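quick one, 430 residues, struct below
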Amino acid sequence: MARIEQGSNSGPSGNPEDAPRLLLLDLLSDTRAIAPERIAALGESSWNVLLDAMRQHRLGALLHWQLEQRHAGLGLPQTIRDEARQAWRDATRRMLGLQYELTILSKLLGAAGIRAIALKGAFLAYHAYPEAALRPMRDLDILVPEDQLVDAWNTLLAAGARSAGEGDSAEDLRRDHALHAGKHHLPALLSPSGFSKVELHRGVQSAASAMERDRNTLLLQGVWGHAITSPIATAPIEFPAPTDMLLHLIMHAAYDHLLNNGPLVLSDIAFLLRRHAVDWERFWRTADALQSMRGAVLLLDLATYYWRDLPIEWTAAAAQLRDDLGAIRLSASLLLLQDRELTPDIWRKRGTGQSGGRIARAVGRLLIPRAEMALLYPVDPRSPRILLCYPARWWRLATRRIPAAWRTGQRGDLRRQAEIDTRVSRWLRV
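---
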């Protein structure tokens, strides 16, 4: 495999922020060696970039674990170690709460005769990672049969769940079920306890286009047809089989998000493969049918680079694609830690972003829903204290995010990052 050069102060975008982001990827890896001079070369602004990336992509708990396991003597700033440790503590408490939430939701839906499969994060956190806290979850994603979707919504509402402020009432859904036909999940709910958001899914990915609908249909066939049951606490919970979980992770990261949903996908893949067997013949056959061989090869290649010794069975066709990756590896690594708050600007620079006005976008960043704010700060979204979090977020935007975005625009980095984005997108779709 070609080497990903990570020792310089900038990457292919010419952006000095590449170095701390690539260092973070190495710190998260359990195989990458880190030379002390890479640490010494970084100044305060670079450490702030690393800290921002850690926060945006929910990497604090995993970083803390790797620092304790592999990098105890590495000279990172104490502020980073302290914040990562606190993120691990917070995640440990939250994952205990989510474990309870998942068991309650499963019992509620089961009592109503509704089959439910917990998607992605739940299985990975409790049955793949060494500790559940290492795989944080923003919400609980529950797949239910299409013909029971509104029944599931009403069951949760009757148990005390309520709208998270993102969608339509139960009456609206009953009156016009087709309203959400192009979406793979209904508007988010707050769970009956108010502890977490819950998304009821009809599909596993967006189904806005004909290709996406075909892909979603094929993925659903595998998820429903090969589902497994594993316990959470004492409750039996249905999950996608490891083969379908791997396919879902790849489709979600490579084709739904063009890798900008963060590097947790690499540790997801690594811990999944280390603890569970994959039917590789079915995996590659399905990836080919999904027209996602390139995404599968790219993400499995990156997972192997950062985590190594993964039991992947490469076909001849996949191995050939892997040989052709070249510089795409480094570009893809940088996309995994792209500044998520700049992603809409980068997509507009590519000419693929949505056409909403600047004022509307600015207001949307300032006045995020309470449920979303509760994911950023450890406050119950129902508590009046959640209102105190808004000034804290505005202060951070004013003192850190807005100046960083201005500097990025001044340097022309949006254009260069858009070029990287375009390069990877084209490779995935050749």
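Strands lie at 117-118, 139-143, 162-163, 189-190, 197-201, 228-232, 235-239.
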